[in-house]
Amino acid sequence: MTEQDNLSGMSIADAKEYIVHHLITFKQNGKRIDELQAEIEKWTARVALAKSKGADDLANEAERKADQFRTECETLKIENDDLKNVIDNMRRQLPVLASRERSIDADLLEQELLITAGYNPGDEEKIGLNRKFADLEKDASADVALEALKKKMQNENGEIA
User: Fold this and answer.
1) I want to staple 69 with a disulfide (CB 3.0 to 4.6 A). Which of 11, 34, 39, 46 is the partner?
2) pLDDT at residue 30 above 60?
3) If phi over 0 gives left and psi between -120 and 50 gives alpha, with beta otherwise, what is residue 158?
4) DSSP secondary structure letters along 54-111
5) Which residues, listed in sequence order, are joined to residue 154 by a DSSP beta bridge?
6) What is d(CA 45, CA 52) in angstroms, rounded to the nearest whole number?
7) How far is 28 from 35, CA to CA, in rounded Å?
């Protein structure tokens, strides 16, 4: 992996945008390669025409032009092959980036739940205290209910029936 195709540290959106820019360059290079191949064909045909007419100086000039276009075309093909490999490497990294973004932040989730329940961030102590009092009140009401039940069950002598 080269520095050019290393997406670590990018968000998934930034990584996708970065890949799109590479894809645009790849497509533009492909169009330019097609144009260059057309130029090569044109100048190769001119070489044949000049040779058939005995104009060796024109044939040499046309051959030189065709060679220029061949060289540029081959360079661009090599660049595009490399660019395709870079794009493929980057695409393989996208699932890893997506999985990192989907990881759950427990603290953030807790804060969101507190907000949903009507509390403000930082109210954890207040919530804990409220829970403790609610537990005490529930225990106290259970004790009162148990005592009332015991009194109902006792007969006049104080014995449990």
Assistant:
1) 39
2) yes
3) left
4) T-HHHHHHHHHHHHHHHHHHHHHHHHHHHHHHHHHHHHHHHHHHHHHHT---HHHHHH
5) 160
6) 11
7) 11
